[in-house]
Specification:
By secondary structure, the protein is mainly β. It has three domains: about 1-365, no CATH class; about 375-445; about 450-540, Immunoglobulin-like, CATH 2.60.40. It has two helices and 42 strands. Strand 17 (about 255-265) and strand 18 form a beta hairpin. The longest helix is centred in the middle third of the chain and has 7 residues, at about 320-325. It is rod-shaped. InterPro entries: Ig_7. It comes from Salegentibacter flavus.
Length: about 575
């Protein structure tokens, strides 16, 4: 399970914009997907027409209609079963199908997302003498080191002024078909987007830049300053694999254009955004502008609707784009949304940004598989199983380095594990190996001891004898020793007896007792040994004696006796004198 969050950038107090961010943590298994590829708009000479249609995603219900309007179920009949940004009726319940993404509060008019993975930005539009608080104030090109950008108060051409931007993230729905007749993939993460512009004359372009290193604004207290990148200056202030998605729309309206660019070496010692062949992303991008008046439940330059060709919406399959770029292991730290003057990739001037760089925490590497530690009494001969990996599971003997011990979800060590041992396991998806997770097999000692049978003669004529059962035990390991009169009690254990001064009767002899020795440091594993021994009491033989007497034999002064004649009722046994 992967966890990532959005966090706002910081801006000086009094800036003339509003930031409405509906951001919440959402956790899914990301596999190789990239995040929010970037909002899109494209370059004139280099861009290719992108499709419009129903995007096969799980939310909103019914999929997402890239159709130029903002309402579910319209236009009819083509999109009457397809979802969109807003419900056809604002009072529709959340489970309405086709459904929406936002619901407007009837009291204060705010937009409330019904799904966690939703992001909305709104900028105050300068009016009269009030200037835009955040524009690029010096030369700023897309290939330029962002550490050299400066910002401050000023004005941008109306065609570069953007007020509203929204994005919603949704996984593919395999119960729907895309524009090309293919079912959606539940493992693919899509970014659904919408944006606007103040005027409809001229071409407009919006960049959505996704950076692996942080990019932050400086000079916030002063109200003007620059930018600071966490990326190395050696790679131009960005990181190889950074993604730029540009969406563009011109005078004519209709299907918008999209360009995908990747930060990489220019082959001459420098770095730049390299424009990729849009054909490599077939089926991954949808975009269009509105061809009719589009009503919206929020402020749109002082109105509640957009003129024709003033609104653009679309969707991009982020998983597919990063996979196509061979960048499945990228992690993103920053999203930077801004407008620019034209679609010429290297020479266009960056103009306005409605929000400063937004700090993200997005790890696109597959998470370590889920594994459960094992505790065992004595040597472990079982298997270890990893779950939650949609790719290839690899097992290692160390946290870093080394070659895999085994490849596969279930690992059975070649020989029994006789001492506490840790293994590490990773998940690899489309060539991207994620971090290793540790699993530990803890071995607890099974305590042992020796037993000796006890025996004794009857004590006098009592019919029994007393014993200390501890005398039967020797060579015991550390632990707790207890005694029982039945094996069943020893197994539970319950009904332990006091081993001191245990009386055994002749009638019960030999009697069996059970000793149990428990490891006191074995967690909940109940490691123990049970052994039995016998206690035997022997009869104390009794006899009756009679004095012998007789007359002297003649005058000898003596007499001969058979001493056996003095013994009667001898209980058996051997008589000696």
């Amino acid at each position: 399970m992967k966890d990532f969050t959005f966090s706002e950038g910081f801006h000086p107090e009094g800036f003339q914009f509003k930031l409405l961010v509906y951001f919440r943590k959402f956790t899914r298994s990301l596999g190789i997907l990239g995040f929010l590829g970037a909002f899109l708009i494209s370059f004139g000479a280099y861009s290719q027409v992108i499709v419009e249609g129903a995007v096969p995603v799980q939310t909103p219900l019914g999929g997402y209609g890239v159709d130029g309007d903002a309402t579910a179920g319209t236009p009819d009949p083509t999109y009457n079963l397809v979802g969109d940004w807003f419900f056809e009726d604002y009072d529709d319940p959340n489970n309405t199908n086709p459904g929406g993404i936002f619901r407007r509060d009837p009291i204060n008019g705010t937009l409330n997302p019904i799904y966690d993975n939703t992001f909305f930005l709104q900028d105050d539009v300068p009016m009269g003498n009030v200037k835009d608080a955040t524009i690029f104030t010096t030369v700023a090109k897309i290939d330029q080191d962002p550490n050299t950008y400066t910002w401050g108060e000023g004005s941008s051409p109306n065609k570069n002024e953007i007020q509203n931007v929204a994005v919603h993230f949704a996984y593919g729905d395999d119960g729907m078909l895309d524009f090309f007749g293919q079912p959606g993939d539940p493992d693919d993460l899509w970014a659904l987007f919408a944006a606007d512009r103040e005027v409809t004359n001229g071409d407009s372009y919006i960049d959505f830049e996704f950076l692996q290193a942080s990019l932050t604004m400086t000079g916030l207290e002063a109200g003007y300053g620059g930018f600071e990148s966490g990326a190395s200056a050696a790679t131009g202030g960005r990181t190889v694999g950074d993604l730029l998605v540009t969406v563009g729309y011109g005078n004519g309206g209709g299907i918008a254009t999209v360009a995908i660019l990747r930060w990489e070496s220019d082959g001459s010692g420098g770095y730049h955004y390299d424009l990729k062949d849009i054909e490599d992303y077939e089926g991954l991008i949808y975009a269009t502008t509105n061809t009719n008046i589009t009503n919206v439940p929020f402020d749109a330059y002082g109105k509640d609707y957009y003129e024709i060709n003033q609104w653009v919406e679309g969707a991009v399959n982020l998983s597919g784009i990063f996979e196509a770029n061979l960048d499945p292991c990228i992690s993103l730290s920053t999203l930077f949304v801004r407008t620019r003057s034209s679609g010429e990739s290297g020479t266009a001037q960056l103009k306005d940004f409605p929000v400063g760089p937004i700090q993200l925490e997005i790890d696109l590497t597959p998470p370590a598989p889920e594994v459960t530690d094992v505790e065992n009494c004595g040597p472990y001969e079982g298997s270890l199983t990893a779950t939650g990996c949609e790719g290839t599971v690899k097992w290692y003997a160390a946290e870093t380095g080394g070659t895999p011990l085994y490849t596969g979800a279930t690992y059975t060590p070649a020989s029994p594990i006789t001492e506490t041992t840790s293994f590490w396991v990773s998940c690899t998806v489309d060539g991207c190996e994620g971090p290793r997770g540790e699993v530990t097999v803890t071995i607890y000692e099974i305590p042992d001891f020796d037993v000796t049978d006890l025996e004794s003669c009857e004590e006098g004529e009592t019919g029994g004898a007393s014993f200390d059962l501890n005398d039967a035990i020797s060579n015991e390991d550390m632990g707790t020793l207890t005694f029982y009169i039945t094996e069943a009690d020893a197994m539970v254990p319950e009904n332990a007896i006091d081993p001191i001064d245990v009386s055994v009767l002749l009638s019960d002899s030999p009697e069996t007792f059970w000793a149990r020795l428990d490891n006191d440091n074995d967690g909940d594993e109940d490691c123990h040994t049970i052994k039995s021994f016998t206690v035997t009491v022997y009869d104390n033989p009794d006899l009756v004696v009679t004095d012998l007497e007789d007359c002297e034999a003649t005058d000898t002064g003596a007499q001969t006796f058979d001493l056996n004649d003095a013994v009667t009722d001898d209980d058996g046994g051997t008589i000696s004198f």
